[in-house]
Amino acid sequence: MNSYHDKTKHSYDSVRTNASHMDWSTQPSQYKVYPEHYKRIKLEERHVEHKFIYLIGGISAKKSYAGGEYFLRTNPSAGALYPNELYFQVRGVEGFEDGVYHFEVKSSSVTLLYALQDDGIEANLNLKKPIKGFVFLLSAVYFRSSWKYKDRAFRYCLLDGGHLLGQMEASAYLKDFAVRHLYDFDKIALNSMFGFESREFFLSASIVGVPNAEEAPKALDLNLPRVDATGTFFENRVIEDAYHDTLVVHDKKRSTRASKFTFRKDVFEETMFKRRSIREMSKAGISRRAFEFIMDVAQESVMSDCDEKVEMYVVLNRVIDMPLGLYHDGRFIKYGDFSKKVGYLSLEQYHLGENSAFTLFLASKSENYQAMYQKAGIIGNRLYLAANYLQIGCSGIGAYYDDEVAKFLELDERYMILYGICVGN
Ligand SMILES: Cc1cc2nc3c(=O)[nH]c(=O)nc-3n(C[C@H](O)[C@H](O)[C@H](O)COP(=O)(O)O)c2cc1C
């Protein structure tokens, strides 16, 4: 068990004794904006490659409340705090000058940070060939999440980040591309080149493109300025230490099988634009076919340089023609109506955990904390999109009673509970 994970468990007592107060006067900004003098490209919906970027994490809804308005994005995020930023290198793609860009969500544009010369990010990521297409770098600006979730926020930076990787996979699928994620590279060197100091840090890189025949060009040696991404900031040593303690990748296992999905592309694209989290479930059942379709999507392979086993435990509450109970790997561990129990385990969010058609918990005993947690986010994102595609609701459940969930799932102390997700209407 990772020591950070152990330290940030919720329990019945901890949520009552450590009631965290949010200080609205220090609420951080959710947008990073580079200075005006940088060149920008406005993303056009009609342009295939622009839409590819937009669908990953662009703004998709505006909500108004008495005090103002806020924006939701194509990707879900714990508490709608959006702690992640996305950077990418483009090479040989129509509509973009070859260069390194930042996705500026606030203005639906991309900012050119550096025009490529005889160099590129490939060598920094230990890739042997230049990539024609996109190479993404995903970061986390942790204070956006720790402002509310305190020490537990590193988990959300990784899960939300994984959701963005899942969005990347989904958006690439629309143009028949697979995605390969990388976790084993010198993140510290890149953090420094991008001027992050300790407030922002890279979590992963992803390739959506094809290698060229030539040798990789020389490595990038950037010296980008620090750009404030939050406005307010309070250091969190627990999170910064957790990041550094989990940087080194141990005994990695490569996964080279691309995922295969069978969505109708026009419907799937619309699903990506319209996806939302369900706020309250009404105890409606779903068909066994729908359940199997959603689970097949979730279980597809994830291509990466460090593939970690993430186990899916499913509590069946209301799937027509399936017995009630706890289900794992195609088999029942125990039979019974556990809906109330799951509502309780989901930090008493009964309207989600109990009222769902099924609620999943993702668990792992991997040593590669960053890779494992981002994979859990990718799986969560697949569940969201597959459910929404069938017009069935879904919500992430980042808050749960860790040890009590593990006990209910009959897991020993090596296992960590990474994420809960409920599906239903
Ligand atoms: C990692 C993660 C954890 C979440 N945990 C919860 C939760 O415990 N309870 C809840 O009601 N919603 C939860 N959500 C849903 C978010 O609140 C939701 O994504 C956010 O408000 C943005 O809304 P949208 O998904 O409709 O775009 C979670 C989402 C994610 C990605």
Written account of the structure:
Strand 2 and strand 3 form a beta hairpin. A seven-stranded antiparallel sheet has the order 1-6-5-4-8-10-9, sandwiched between helices. Strands 14-13-12-15-17-16 form a six-stranded antiparallel sheet, with helices on both faces. Strands 2-3 form a two-stranded antiparallel sheet. The model has no long low-confidence stretch (mean pLDDT 96). The protein folds into two domains: 27-245, NADH Oxidase, CATH 3.40.109.10; 265-424, NADH Oxidase (3-Layer(aba) Sandwich). It is globular. The chain is of the alpha+beta class and 425 residues long. Helices cover 29% and strands 24% of the residues. Residues 72, 76-80, 156, 159-160, 163, 276-277, 349, 395-399 line the site of flavin mononucleotide (FMN).
List the helices and strands and how they pair.
Blueprint: H1 3-7, H2 14-17, E1 40-42, H3 48-57, E2 59-65, E3 68-73, E4 84-91, E5 99-104, E6 109-115, E7 119-120, E8 131-141, H4 143-149, H5 153-173, E9 180-182, H6 187-193, E10 200-211, E11 218-219, H7 237-245, H8 265-274, H9 288-299, E12 311-316, E13 325-328, E14 331-335, H10 339-345, H11 350-353, E15 358-364, H12 369-389, E16 393-397, H13 402-408, E17 416-424
Parallel strand pairs: 7-11
Antiparallel strand pairs: 1-6, 2-3, 4-5, 4-8, 5-6, 8-10, 9-10, 12-13, 12-15, 13-14, 15-17, 16-17
Helix pairs in contact: 3-5, 4-5, 5-12, 9-12
Bound molecules: flavin mononucleotide.
Residues 72, 76-80, 156, 159-160, 163, 276-277, 349, 395-399 line the site of flavin mononucleotide (FMN).
